Structures are given as structure tokens and as C-alpha cells.
Amino acid sequence: MTDTAPDTSIYDRTSIKLPKFKGWSSKSVYDYDEEIVDYESLEALNRTINQARKALFKTTESIGSYERKENTAKINYDRAYRREFLSSTAKTESEKRMRAALNCEDLENEWLMHQQVREELVRYSATLRLELQTLQGLGHNYRQQMKL
């Protein structure tokens, strides 16, 4: 009986490149742990609202920055892919596509990394908007209690 194990020699010759997602912390913009408190004064609540607003503004700026980086990385990837495809000496279209994709992995990883960070920032900005709504509700309740 012959051994019919799959040929893994291609995995030995190439290294698989994965995106390196750079971590960022939402606490560098807005520290939730410090802000979940019982507000003793309207001034403390207003200070927290202003911090949340600043955090939302910074996050919105970061989203724009990462969108530009993502678009630039996508353009670089697409153009490099097309050049690799056209310069390939492979015989079939399918093989040309695969070779072009493999040769452009680093550019694709860069594009994916920027895309991921932008998506995380969009989710974070939605959270900040909810936080602002909550803080505004607390401010309204606090003012109503002061009237009593």
C-alpha cells in the first residue's frame, strides 16, 4: 500500500504572512473606569460630559485618518496586484491570480490592519455617543432633583 499523504512541500518553502494588528486602548482617549461614579455636583458631571465630547472628537479624527490610510493601502495593494498579475509568467489565469495574491500579501495585510482599526474606532465612537446620551440624561435628572 502506498502512502497518499498530501504534499506539504509548499508549506515548507513559504511562510504564511498574517496581519500584525497593532493594539490601541480606548482608555488612552476616555477612561470609563474613572467616569462610572455617582456625581456629587453638576460641575463634575459637566466635566465628564466635556471629556466624553473631546474623546468623541478625537475618535472621529482618528476614523478619518485611518480611512485615508486604509484607502491608500488598498490602492497600493490593487496596483501591485495588477502589476504582479501582468508580469507573471504563469500559464493559466488562475495561477497568475494566485501568484499575484501571494506576492502582494504584505500589502494586503497592511490594508487589512488599517481596515480593522477603522472598524474598531467606528464601534468605539458609537459607544461614546451612547455614553454622552447617558450623561446628558443624568444631567437632566440631576437638574430636576435640584428643582425639588
Give a concise summary.
By secondary structure, the chain is mostly helical. Helix 3 packs across helix 4 and helix 3 runs antiparallel to helix 5. The termini are far apart.
What would you say this structure looks like, in words?
- There is one protein chain.
- The chain is mainly alpha-helical.
- The chain has helices spanning 9-13, 32-35, 42-87, 93-103, 105-147.
- It has one domain (41-147).
- Helices cover 74% and strands 0% of the residues.
- Helix 3 packs across helix 4 (93-103).
Number of domains: 1
Give the amount of beta strand, in percent.
under 5%
Distance between the termini: 91 Å
Based on secondary structure, the structural category is mainly alpha
Uncertain residue ranges: 7-13
User: Helix coverage percent of residues?
Assistant: over 70%
Taking Cα atoms only, what radius of gyration do you get, to the nearest Å? Answer: 25 Å
Give the helix tally.
5
Largest sheet: none
Shape: rod-shaped
Mean pLDDT: 82
Number of strands: 0
The arrangement of helices and strands along the chain is HHHHH
